[in-house]
C-alpha cells in the first residue's frame, strides 16, 4: 500500500475493469483525445448544460484544464469505457487464433500478444462515464489524506445497471490503496436524487458547502 505521505500520488495507477450485468467496463486514465466525450457527459443534464459549452472557443479552455489535471500526480481523471463488444470480439479472435494455429504448418499465431489493439483504438469501446479523484494531504485529522470525488457522470447508455454504485465502490477502494482515510464530495442542493444515492452509500451531510465566484 502507498502511505499517506507518499509523493507519488496516483502516478502508479493502472487500468482496472468492472464486470457488471453481463457487461465489461474499463476504468482508465483519461487522455486528451477523451476531452470532447467527457465534456459531453458533463453537459448532459440541466445544470451541466448551463455550465458547460460545446463551442469551439471553449475547446482550448478544456484542453488547458486537462493538461493541468494530467500533470498533477494528486489528480486522477478517469474515463469509463464500455468494452463489452471488444471483449466479446477478443474472445472470438482467440478462438479463431487457436483454430488457425492448429491448421498452419509454421505454427505461428495470427498476432502476438503485444500487437493486440487497445479498446480505445478499435472503435468498439464507448465512453460511458467519468469522474475525477483528488488526493488532498492535510494537517487536520492527524495529518490524514482526503479523497475528493468530483464530476461523476454515468451516461444514459450505462444507467440502471448499478454502475454508479460499482464505480463509487471502486473509487473508495482506490482511495484507500493510495493512502486516503476519508472520502468527501459536494453535490448541488437541487440534485435530490444524487443526495439520496450518496446517503445509501453511507455519506453523511455533515458540513455546509459554500462557493464564491472569483471571475
Task: Give a verbal description of the structure.
The chain is of the alpha+beta class and 215 residues long. Helix content is 36%, strand content 21%. It has eight helices and six strands. It has helices spanning 35-42, 46-51, 59-70, 84-103, 119-122, 140-143, 163-177, 192-200; strands spanning 16-20, 23-29, 75-82, 126-137, 145-154, 182-185. It has a six-stranded mixed sheet with strand order 1-2-3-4-5-6, with helices on both faces. A hairpin with a 2-residue loop joins strand 1 (16-20) and strand 2 (23-29). The longest helix has 20 residues, at 84-103. It is globular and about 50 Å long. The protein starts with 15 loop residues before the first strand and ends in a 15-residue tail after the last helix.
- Quick check: average pLDDT? 85
- Helix share, percent: 25-40%
Strand order of the largest sheet: 1-2-3-4-5-6
The shape, in one word, is globular
The percent range for strand residues is: 15-25%
Low-confidence stretches: 1-5, 101-117
* Sheet having the most strands: 6 strands, mixed
Number of helices: 8
Taking the alpha carbons of the first and last residues, their distance comes to 40 Å
Query: What series of H and E elements makes up the topology?
Result: EEHHHEHHEHEHEH
Report the structural category: alpha+beta
Amino acid at each position: 500500500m502507498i502511505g499517506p505521505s507518499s509523493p507519488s500520488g496516483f502516478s502508479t495507477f493502472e487500468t482496472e475493469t468492472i464486470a457488471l450485468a453481463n457487461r465489461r467496463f474499463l476504468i482508465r486514465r483519461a487522455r486528451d483525445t477523451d476531452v470532447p466525450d467527457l465534456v459531453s457527459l458533463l453537459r448532459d443534464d440541466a445544470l451541466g448544460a448551463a455550465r458547460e459549452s460545446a463551442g469551439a472557443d471553449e475547446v482550448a479552455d478544456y484542453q488547458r484544464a486537462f493538461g493541468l489535471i494530467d500533470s498533477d500526480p494528486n489528480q486522477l481523471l478517469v474515463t469509463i469505457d464500455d468494452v463489452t463488444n471488444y471483449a466479446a470480439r477478443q474472445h472470438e479472435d482467440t478462438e479463431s487464433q487457436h483454430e488457425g494455429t492448429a491448421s498452419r504448418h509454421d505454427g505461428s499465431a495470427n498476432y502476438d500478444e503485444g500487437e493486440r489493439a487497445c479498446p480505445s483504438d478499435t472503435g468498439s469501446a464507448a465512453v460511458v462515464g467519468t469522474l475525477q479523484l483528488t488526493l488532498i494531504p492535510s494537517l487536520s485529522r492527524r495529518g490524514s489524506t482526503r479523497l475528493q470525488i468530483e464530476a461523476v457522470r454515468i451516461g444514459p447508455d450505462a444507467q440502471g445497471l448499478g454502475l454508479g454504485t460499482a464505480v463509487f465502490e471502486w473509487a473508495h477502494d482506490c482511495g484507500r490503496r493510495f493512502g486516503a482515510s476519508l472520502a468527501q464530495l459536494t453535490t448541488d442542493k437541487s440534485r435530490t436524487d444524487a443526495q439520496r444515492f450518496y446517503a445509501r452509500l453511507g455519506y453523511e451531510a455533515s458540513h455546509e458547502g459554500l462557493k464564491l465566484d472569483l471571475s
